[in-house]
Amino acid sequence: MRRALTAVAPRFPGLGQVSFGAVVPEGLAGRPGFAEHEPLSDARVRLLGSPGYGRRLQELAPPGVRVTSTDNLALRMRPDLIHAAVCLPVLQIEPDGAVRAMAAYEGTVGNVLTDPPAELWRRAVARRHDPFVRETLAPVRTMRAWAEATRAIDLRFGTEADRRRIARRQAFTPGGCTARRPGRTAPGGAKPGRYGGGAAPHDPVRTRAPSRTHTPATSGEARMSDPTTAREAIALVTDDFSELPFDEGPLPGDGPIGWPGYSAAHARAAERTGETESVVCGTGVVGGVTAVLISFEFRFLGGSLGERTGARAAAAHALARARRLPVVVLPATGGSRMHEGMRALLQLQYLARESETTRAAGLPQIAVLRDPTTGGGWATLGAGSDVVLALPGAQVGFAGSRVRPPDADPAAYTAEAQLAHGHLDAIVPPGALRETLGRWLSLLVHPAEGPVPPPYALGDPGAAPAASGREAVARARHPDRPRAAAYLDAHFTLREEISGDRCGGVDPGMRCGFGQLPDGRTVAYAAQCGTATRPAGFRTAARLVRLADRLGIPVLTLVDTPGAANDPAAERAGAGTAIADLFAAVASARTPLTSLLVGEGGSGGALALAAPGNTWATPDSYFSVIAPEAAAAILKRAPEEAATTADQLRLRPQDLVDLGVVRGVVEEAPGSSR
């Protein structure tokens, strides 16, 4: 900055002002490593925004040149800053007219070329009041926390194209060096990357053993995520592990297809790792819950799946079923073992059968993906689990690094990309894994009894019932009306969420997961957040209902949507089939379901989530065959007749009770201070 003012500014005689501003963590905040390395330090940010530093800069400037500097912290748009008028909650208009609800954050709310300004503002206010936004931004005090919060908001509210763009961003590399991309020769002739996509290396002695220390890599280079060995992974989640004994003895000959040198390679792998196969199995206590653990050793022939690997995993599943224990898989594998040919590939069928048998027994399965998880290991034990977690930076994909198209985008084969496209549920840092896994296990093995009562109402307790349909609609659409997150917070003491429909989609407007009641028991929940539900949202909810049904966990659904998304992208994504799938999941569920209408109940997109015969309503809600505006259009009425149409639809909570649509209108909690 000093050089800019003393060496550059004097070269421009007509210069009138120089402005300096701290980099705002938008855009590249979604790039791996940004939060840790790229923003200014908090001390420098404070210095940049201080009046004394501004005066110092002004003294360095040429005469007549005004100098300003800002920390840009007002753009954080924390809820308390907006409330205190420290920052202005401005919208941002993109070149194509799309409107961001919050400048510096992804997530549009419409288009200024097609949507009424008042409606855009209403949506923007609702976004700023969204519980996820408020909870994410409220604790932000540092640049790193701001960058992490920005990434979370971008991934939650960005479009599918936004999330793909974020997933393609290359990671920060200290020193400005660009890491090698797969396929390019590294010093010494070695090729970077991992084996995968159904083929493990011919002789792993030629590969470099994973190191505990590594330089942060670009998305195009395989990056180690701690832990690096099977036993380190086990130690990361439990201190109480009892190993299943296996004594297969030396490998006879060169295996089932007589691969030259296989027996010797197997023996060398055993000597180098101290393991007798590529997987370690046993039981361990995680978060107070005993579980069967299956952990892969990548240093043993690339963690590949052979006949003995499959037999050990099958024995672990059999133990889980015999003792009624959940299964936790910690894969780090390149796929099937080439040395055993088709006999190795058949293990995928056997593993799928074991997993499905355990699933049919009503036992949960959780996968924690390590680096790398590719090939058949990802397609069976990984993606086939009920809940899929991953360590940051893990390489995850069916195609390993050496069997992909030469021009393939390496960012597509990462845990982060799989999360963005709905194929796993969360990325968990190693230091938080034990606690997170413990919570998941505790939630999945302690179901509540019978149908759960609906939550208490959180709205204005002094408000009289809506006098008309138009008033009921206005109340449900009010931006300050309690939303799903408020009900979830009030109802559960802790919760964990699943993410994605496993078909390539994520809908931030549908929150699904498992929550713990004050008595320690678990209820599954699917909650609409007041937005038009995307096909991915319906499929995620169907996934949640079926998982809860299989585990015998009762389900609570919170209905709040103006309706199903009706844009061309939603149709291409299968809106009708996704809604049908959710209707089928709800209709066929044996576990009890309870539903609470907490806001807008717009047509079939809302009804699909409602429990037949056990749906309740809050006083500030409505349920309608279709939104009043749409009903007026269908009936060929003028737009200004939407209010009259709302009155005629009998959509108020008390109307719904009279019509037998809902069982009753819930009241506020006894002794509530609201």
What does the model show?
- This protein is an alpha/beta fold and 674 residues long.
- The chain is built from 26 helices and 21 strands.
- Strands 6-7-8-9-10-12-14 form a seven-stranded mixed beta sheet, sandwiched between helices. Strands 15, 16, 17, 18, 19, 20 and 21 form a seven-stranded mixed beta sheet that branches. It has a three-stranded antiparallel beta sheet with strand order 3-4-5, with helices on one face.
- α12 packs parallel to α14 and α20 packs parallel to α22 (575-588).
- The protein is globular.
- It starts with a helix and ends in a 16-residue tail after the last helix.
Q: What is this structure's SSE topology?
A:
Layout lengths: L1 H7 L8 E5 L12 H4 L4 H7 L2 H10 L5 E5 L8 H5 L8 E2 L4 E3 L7 E4 L5 H12 L2 H7 L5 H15 L2 H9 L61 H8 L3 E3 L18 H12 L5 E8 L2 E8 L10 H17 L3 E4 L10 H5 L1 H14 L4 E5 L3 E2 H8 L4 E4 L5 E2 L17 H6 L5 E2 L2 H16 L23 H9 L6 H8 L2 E5 L11 E7 L5 E7 L6 H17 L3 E7 L6 H5 L2 H14 L4 E10 H5 L7 E3 L4 E3 L3 H7 L7 H7 L4 H6 L16
Parallel strand pairs: 1-2, 8-9, 9-10, 10-12, 11-13, 12-14, 17-18, 18-19, 19-20, 19-21
Antiparallel strand pairs: 3-4, 4-5, 6-7, 7-8, 15-16, 16-17
Helix pairs in contact: 7-8, 12-14, 14-15, 20-22, 24-25
